[in-house]
Amino acid sequence: MLHLFREQDANGGGDSDMRIIGILAGAVALMAGFGSHSAGAAELVGPQDLKANWLDGRTVSTTGPRGGASTFAFAADGKVTRAGGRPGSATEGTWRVDDEGFCMKLGQARRESCYLAIKADDGSLKVVRRQGAAFVWRR
User: Fold this and answer.
1) pLDDT, tens digit, for every residue of 69-93?
2) Does some domain include residue 44?
3) Closest among 134, 139, 112, 119 to 49, alpha carbons compared
4) How many domains does the chain have?
Protein backbone atom coordinates (compact mmCIF):
# COMPACT_ATOMS: atom_id res chain seq x y z
CA MET A 1 0.00 0.00 0.00
CA LEU A 2 1.39 3.36 -1.00
CA HIS A 3 1.11 6.05 1.66
CA LEU A 4 1.13 9.63 0.44
CA PHE A 5 1.39 12.81 2.45
CA ARG A 6 1.10 16.47 1.68
CA GLU A 7 4.02 18.71 2.45
CA GLN A 8 3.95 22.45 3.01
CA ASP A 9 5.81 24.48 0.43
CA ALA A 10 9.00 26.32 1.39
CA ASN A 11 7.05 29.46 2.27
CA GLY A 12 4.76 27.62 4.71
CA GLY A 13 1.83 28.12 2.34
CA GLY A 14 -0.36 25.62 0.49
CA ASP A 15 0.11 21.98 -0.35
CA SER A 16 2.82 20.78 -2.69
CA ASP A 17 0.72 18.89 -5.25
CA MET A 18 3.70 18.40 -7.56
CA ARG A 19 5.36 16.12 -5.00
CA ILE A 20 2.23 13.99 -4.78
CA ILE A 21 1.88 13.88 -8.56
CA GLY A 22 5.52 12.85 -8.92
CA ILE A 23 5.18 10.05 -6.38
CA LEU A 24 1.98 8.81 -8.00
CA ALA A 25 3.49 8.94 -11.48
CA GLY A 26 6.53 6.98 -10.34
CA ALA A 27 4.41 4.37 -8.57
CA VAL A 28 2.07 3.97 -11.55
CA ALA A 29 5.01 3.57 -13.94
CA LEU A 30 6.58 1.06 -11.58
CA MET A 31 3.40 -0.96 -11.21
CA ALA A 32 2.90 -0.97 -14.98
CA GLY A 33 6.37 -2.46 -15.35
CA PHE A 34 5.33 -5.41 -13.19
CA GLY A 35 2.35 -6.24 -15.40
CA SER A 36 4.22 -8.57 -17.74
CA HIS A 37 6.60 -9.97 -15.12
CA SER A 38 4.52 -10.81 -12.10
CA ALA A 39 1.21 -12.48 -11.41
CA GLY A 40 1.25 -11.56 -7.70
CA ALA A 41 0.77 -8.22 -6.02
CA ALA A 42 3.71 -5.85 -5.91
CA GLU A 43 4.73 -4.71 -2.43
CA LEU A 44 6.11 -1.27 -1.61
CA VAL A 45 9.25 -1.73 0.52
CA GLY A 46 9.38 0.62 3.48
CA PRO A 47 12.47 2.58 4.53
CA GLN A 48 13.30 0.42 7.56
CA ASP A 49 13.03 -2.79 5.50
CA LEU A 50 15.28 -1.21 2.86
CA LYS A 51 17.79 -0.21 5.53
CA ALA A 52 17.84 -3.65 7.17
CA ASN A 53 17.85 -5.81 4.04
CA TRP A 54 19.27 -3.82 1.13
CA LEU A 55 21.19 -0.80 2.44
CA ASP A 56 23.24 -3.02 4.75
CA GLY A 57 26.78 -2.97 3.34
CA ARG A 58 26.36 -5.95 1.03
CA THR A 59 26.70 -5.43 -2.72
CA VAL A 60 23.57 -4.78 -4.77
CA SER A 61 23.66 -5.45 -8.53
CA THR A 62 21.60 -3.00 -10.58
CA THR A 63 20.27 -2.92 -14.11
CA GLY A 64 19.06 0.45 -15.33
CA PRO A 65 16.08 1.17 -17.58
CA ARG A 66 18.37 1.22 -20.64
CA GLY A 67 20.18 -1.99 -19.66
CA GLY A 68 23.27 -0.45 -18.05
CA ALA A 69 24.73 -2.49 -15.18
CA SER A 70 26.51 -1.42 -12.02
CA THR A 71 26.89 -2.40 -8.37
CA PHE A 72 26.30 -0.41 -5.21
CA ALA A 73 27.44 -0.92 -1.62
CA PHE A 74 25.49 1.12 0.97
CA ALA A 75 27.47 1.37 4.23
CA ALA A 76 25.76 1.76 7.61
CA ASP A 77 27.41 5.18 8.07
CA GLY A 78 25.43 6.63 5.13
CA LYS A 79 28.16 6.32 2.50
CA VAL A 80 27.55 4.63 -0.86
CA THR A 81 30.07 3.31 -3.39
CA ARG A 82 29.23 2.50 -7.02
CA ALA A 83 31.21 0.39 -9.47
CA GLY A 84 30.41 0.18 -13.17
CA GLY A 85 28.01 2.45 -14.98
CA ARG A 86 28.98 5.04 -17.57
CA PRO A 87 32.66 5.97 -17.86
CA GLY A 88 33.36 9.04 -15.76
CA SER A 89 30.31 8.52 -13.52
CA ALA A 90 30.66 9.36 -9.85
CA THR A 91 31.65 6.39 -7.70
CA GLU A 92 31.09 7.69 -4.15
CA GLY A 93 28.35 9.52 -2.33
CA THR A 94 25.88 9.47 0.53
CA TRP A 95 22.49 7.88 1.21
CA ARG A 96 19.68 8.18 3.76
CA VAL A 97 16.22 6.75 4.31
CA ASP A 98 13.15 8.98 4.48
CA ASP A 99 9.43 8.40 5.05
CA GLU A 100 8.85 6.86 1.61
CA GLY A 101 12.05 5.05 0.65
CA PHE A 102 15.60 6.31 0.32
CA CYS A 103 17.62 9.15 -1.18
CA MET A 104 21.21 9.31 -2.40
CA LYS A 105 23.62 11.85 -3.82
CA LEU A 106 26.62 10.77 -5.88
CA GLY A 107 29.73 12.80 -6.60
CA GLN A 108 29.27 16.51 -7.14
CA ALA A 109 25.53 16.32 -7.85
CA ARG A 110 23.74 19.51 -6.80
CA ARG A 111 20.92 17.62 -5.12
CA GLU A 112 20.06 14.12 -4.02
CA SER A 113 17.74 11.79 -5.93
CA CYS A 114 15.01 9.99 -3.99
CA TYR A 115 13.58 6.56 -4.78
CA LEU A 116 10.69 4.18 -4.08
CA ALA A 117 11.30 0.42 -4.04
CA ILE A 118 8.78 -2.29 -4.89
CA LYS A 119 9.48 -5.96 -4.25
CA ALA A 120 8.81 -8.44 -7.06
CA ASP A 121 7.74 -12.06 -6.59
CA ASP A 122 11.29 -13.22 -7.44
CA GLY A 123 12.74 -11.17 -4.54
CA SER A 124 14.26 -8.45 -6.70
CA LEU A 125 13.36 -4.81 -6.23
CA LYS A 126 12.15 -2.35 -8.83
CA VAL A 127 13.72 0.91 -7.67
CA VAL A 128 12.23 3.99 -9.28
CA ARG A 129 13.32 7.57 -9.03
CA ARG A 130 10.26 9.30 -7.65
CA GLN A 131 9.96 11.10 -10.96
CA GLY A 132 11.64 8.71 -13.38
CA ALA A 133 12.27 5.24 -14.75
CA ALA A 134 12.82 2.03 -12.77
CA PHE A 135 16.04 0.14 -11.99
CA VAL A 136 16.03 -3.57 -11.01
CA TRP A 137 18.07 -4.70 -7.99
CA ARG A 138 19.09 -8.34 -7.47
CA ARG A 139 21.15 -10.43 -5.06
Assistant:
1) 999 999 999 999 999 888 878 899 9
2) yes
3) 119
4) 1
